[in-house]
Amino acid sequence: MRVLLKGGRVVDPSQNLDGTYDVLIEGNRVVKVEKKIDRVEATKVIDVSGLIVSPGFIDLHTHLREPGQEWKEDIETGSQAAVAGGFTSVCCMANTDPVNDNPSVTKYIVDRGKEVGLCDVFPIGAITKGLKGEELAEIGLMVKAGIVAISDDGESPRDSRVLRNAMDYARSLGIPVFTHSEDKTLSAGGHMNEGPLSTRLGIPGMPPEAEDIGTMRDILIAKLTGAHIHVCHVSSKGALKIIEEAKGDGVRVTCEITPHHFTLTEDAVEGFNTNAKMCPPLRTKDHVEACRIALKKGVADSIATDHAPHSEDEKLVEFCRAPFGIIGLQTALPLSLNLVREGYLTLSQMIEKLSTNPSRIIGKRDIGSLKPGSRANVTVFDPEEEFVLTKEEIKSKSCNTPFLNKRLRGRVKITIYNGKIVFKDK
Ligand SMILES: NC(=O)N[C@@H](CC(=O)O)C(=O)O
Ligand SMILES: [Zn+2]
Ligand SMILES: [Zn+2]
């Protein structure tokens, strides 16, 4: 089967491409990208004129909840949400039940991801057993079983020595350490950003400094060990400043920002909206602006969703009893396009953050690009089409998002994974 995508605007930062091109796919590989490829070369021609053609998006931060919390999400529904959002690869966090801290859980996730077959499911292994921060997980064996990084996401090892040992291992194994950088002793008991709003609402706060301190410590340990640290869901001005400085000093640090942190302020919490509760929390305008500028300047390498499904029942409780987290796979593209419309990013830079850079961060060379020979993972989208994010639209098992029933602009039309159409908008 030879599929020809005809007449789209191909934007591929990995080869500095932005213009009208045809893309020919054979089997699971891209064969060529040229100004004009004859229809006779293909067995199937798809007219994509007026649409953007991009390398498939790669989410560095997804919670798929399987094994163990399948009422929130499972690998199949999470994969469906991913491809509906234009993601052809997701890296899934280890805070499942049981925790992905040993090769048998890793193997289960890898096998189940392949069985579903809609997108790459790349597991992230835990740093410590049970995410307890005490004993190191079976990192070497998990690497053999297919993890692409280690992280105790949700938690952050309190013991710096433990983190140091993990970073030593990660460095020798050639994988990055994804940190949820937070001084949990400072943010303890908090449920939203700390400030005048948290005081008025009577909700205990989490100061941005908890994130700043965590980021500083984690980066210093990365510097000490020479490990590659990838700081997850950065939300504070201070943390971004620390990351920028560390990059200048040559520390191997990359980071991600979530669409919600560059879009929303803590005001979304008003009315005790538990669908605006996540960790780190939504912050004030100056922090949101700092996130946007960091993406623009390249201090922030990637946009990741931190897709964190929780059921309606779990979120339908008093604010302080609700779990942290919101879904994000199907809102990432329209929210990222807002940064393009507002002049923070070019389309090419946006795709760099959603595909090119993530592929480099996890060291996967055959994705994140439409160069001939790359895997045929392609996202085709209409940057202008508007839609309302109704429950029917949402492929995830959970609907915990502050964007529910909101109008969004920018829609995925076709997602191709390994040369096969895995999502097509009606
Ligand atoms: N982001 C969240 O608010 N929640 C995540 C954990 C995490 O990413 O820290 C979850 O697993 O629900
Ligand atoms: Zn986290
Ligand atoms: Zn997370």
From TrEMBL:
First-tier enzyme category under EC: hydrolase
Gene Ontology biological process terms from the UniProt entry: 'de novo' UMP biosynthetic process; purine nucleobase catabolic process
Residues annotated to bind substrate: 63-65, 95, 310, 324-325
Catalytic activity, EC: 3.5.2.3
Gene Ontology MF annotations: allantoinase activity; dihydroorotase activity; zinc ion binding
Cofactor(s) the protein needs: Zn(2+)
Enzymatic reactions: (S)-dihydroorotate + H2O = N-carbamoyl-L-aspartate + H(+)
Signal peptide: none
One GO location term (cellular component): cytoplasm
Entry binding sites for Zn(2+) 1: 61, 63, 153, 306
Positions with a binding annotation for Zn(2+) 2: 153, 180, 233
Domain Dihydroorotase catalytic per the UniProt entry, residue ranges: 52-237
UniProt cross-references to Pfam families, sorted A to Z: Amidohydro_3, DHOase
Key word Cell membrane present: no
Cofactor note: Binds 2 Zn(2+) ions per subunit.
Pathway(s) per entry: Pyrimidine metabolism; UMP biosynthesis via de novo pathway; (S)-dihydroorotate from bicarbonate: step 3/3
Keyword line: Hydrolase, Metal-binding, Pyrimidine biosynthesis, Zinc
Residue ranges of every copy of the Amidohydrolase domain listed in the record: 341-423
InterPro entries (alphabetical): Amidohydro_3, DHOase, DHOase/Allantoinase_Hydrolase, DHOase_cat, Dihydroorotase_CS, Metal-dep_hydrolase_composite, Metal_Hydrolase
Active-site annotation: 306
Gene3D superfamilies, sorted: Metal-dependent hydrolases, Urease, subunit C, domain 1
Function, as annotated: Catalyzes the reversible cyclization of carbamoyl aspartate to dihydroorotate.
Similarity section: Belongs to the metallo-dependent hydrolases superfamily. DHOase family. Class I DHOase subfamily.
Name of protein: Dihydroorotase
Provenance organism: Balnearium lithotrophicum
